[in-house]
Amino acid sequence: MKKRSTKNWFKDWANEYDRTLGKIKRHHKLLDLAVERSGVKKNDEVLDIGCGTGLLSLKFLKKADCRIVGIDSSRDMMSIFKEKIKRLSLEKNVSCKFKDAVKIDFKKDSFDIVASTVTLHHIKKKDPVIKNIHKILKPGGRFVVGDIDIDTTGKLTDIDRLTRLLDYLKMELVLAMKEGGVDAFNRMYDNGKKHILNDGEYCISFKQWRELCKKAGFRKITVKPLPDFKWFKVLTAVK
Ligand SMILES: C[S@@+](CC[C@H](N)C(=O)[O-])C[C@H]1O[C@@H](n2cnc3c(N)ncnc32)[C@H](O)[C@@H]1O
Question: From CA 54, how far away is CA 46, in angstroms rounded?
Answer without folding.
Answer: 13
